[in-house]
Design a protein that fits this description.
Elements: E1 2-6, E2 10-16, E3 31-37, H1 39-49, E4 54-59, H2 65-73, E5 77-80, E6 87-95, E7 102-108, H3 116-129, E8 135-139, H4 150-160, E9 164-168, H5 171-180, E10 188-189, H6 193-200, H7 204-212, H8 217-228, E11 233-237, E12 243-247, E13 250-254, H9 267-280, H10 285-300, E14 321-322
Parallel strand pairs: 1-4, 1-8, 2-6, 4-5, 8-9, 9-10, 10-11
Antiparallel strand pairs: 2-3, 6-7, 11-12, 12-13, 13-14
Helix pairs in contact: 1-9, 6-7, 9-10
Family: Belongs to the carbohydrate kinase PfkB family.
InterPro entries: Carboh/pur_kinase_PfkB_CS, PfkB_dom, Ribo/fructo_kinase, Ribokinase-like, Tagatose/fructose_Pkinase
Keywords: ATP-binding, Kinase, Nucleotide-binding, Transferase
Length: about 325
């Protein structure tokens, strides 16, 4: 089974202005939708839609609107009760100044503060849910109240239970993961260019620009360095430039498909879902990379935080090359 932990879940509200966003101006919303959000929930939805067994774990109080949305999705989940409410993240879609491109502006709440007892309860719910040979994905930011090294502690705890553990996070929690290497290392790490830059001390936009120009050496070297420090597989997503996977046996690259972008929210989580689906199906590394990028490309063609179904995903394994 694939189990996801969303330590700081959200209600994802997406509004489309259909026009440029002007600071200080008055705007009218063209479309508005609210969906269950949080990186682990997004991954779980992708896995569920592929027909695999999945469980989403998250902190949320009884009667929280997020739980009703999860019920409506039919997503198996367990909520560790908290006193606060789940945050709302706002995504504003607007046109660029020329009116032809899409600009995504995200405004995120910090989330409810977890007390020490609530934090312990969340860990216990996770530990009780997992079994040997399960895969666990620890995704997203940490709720206020959780220490920056929470994911490091959970990787160590879950490895004691013979569980395959992936991590997708940023900022201080990602720094804690990097600092813990090689003593404690996840089996799977999924940074984007910005997050990889946080680890290696390089501007993420420069890494992505160089990749777009065909210079994949900096990303390849950084991903390999993380793998050499004990991370089982490192999947670096590079937006429109594609993605790089470093794992046992080598490094693979694939470009992204050329698609019309509707919303970039949830694309990285969809890529994580695609990778985990491929891993669960026993695919080889190159095929896992192709599936991950296909899921990410499909996600950007969908509105809001919509995670694709398998029939919306077009996998191009023939585009994968070994670096």
């Amino acid at each position: 089974m694939i189990i996801t932990l969303t330590a700081n879940p959200s209600l994802d509200r997406t509004v489309d202005l259909g026009a440029p966003l002007t600071p200080g101006g008055v705007h009218r919303i063209r479309t508005d939708r609210t969906q269950p959000g949080g990186k682990g929930i997004n991954v779980a939805l992708g896995v569920q839609r592929a027909g695999l067994e999945v469980l989403a774990i998250l902190p949320a109080g009884p009667g929280d609107p997020l739980l009703a949305l999860l019920e409506a999705e039919g997503l198996p989940h367990r909520a560790s009760p908290i006193a606060g409410r789940v945050r709302t993240n706002l995504t504003v879609l607007s046109a660029d100044e020329g009116g032809s491109g899409l600009v995504t502006t995200k405004i995120n709440e910090p989330g409810a503060h977890l007390s020490p007892d609530e934090a312990l309860s969340l860990e216990e719910v996770l530990a009780e849910a997992v079994g040997p040979e399960d895969m666990v994905m620890l995704s997203g930011s940490l709720a206020p109240g959780l220490p920056a090294d929470e994911y490091v502690r959970l990787v160590d705890l879950l490895h004691e239970q013979d569980v395959h553990v992936g991590v997708d996070t940023s900022d201080a929690p990602l720094g804690a993961i990097a600092d813990a290497l090689p003593a404690i290392a996840p089996d799977f790490l999924k940074p984007n260019a910005e997050e990889l830059g946080q680890i290696v001390g390089a501007p993420g936009d420069e890494l992505e620009r160089r990749a777009e120009a065909g210079d994949l050496a900096p990303v390849r070297e950084a991903a390999l360095a993380l793998h050499d420090q004990g991370v089982g597989a490192v999947l670096v997503t590079l937006g429109g430039a594609g993605g790089v996977l470093a794992t046992d046996g080598g490094v693979w690259y694939s470009p992204s498909a050329t698609v019309e972008v509707v919303s970039t929210v949830g694309a990285g989580d969809s890529a994580s879902a695609g990778y985990l689906i491929g891993l669960a199906l026993g695919e080889e590394p190159g095929d896992r990379l192709a599936r991950a990028l296909a899921y990410g490309s499909a996600a950007v063609t969908l509105p809001g935080t919509t995670i694709p179904r398998p029939d919306q995903v077009s996998i191009a394994a023939d585009r994968v090359v070994r670096l």
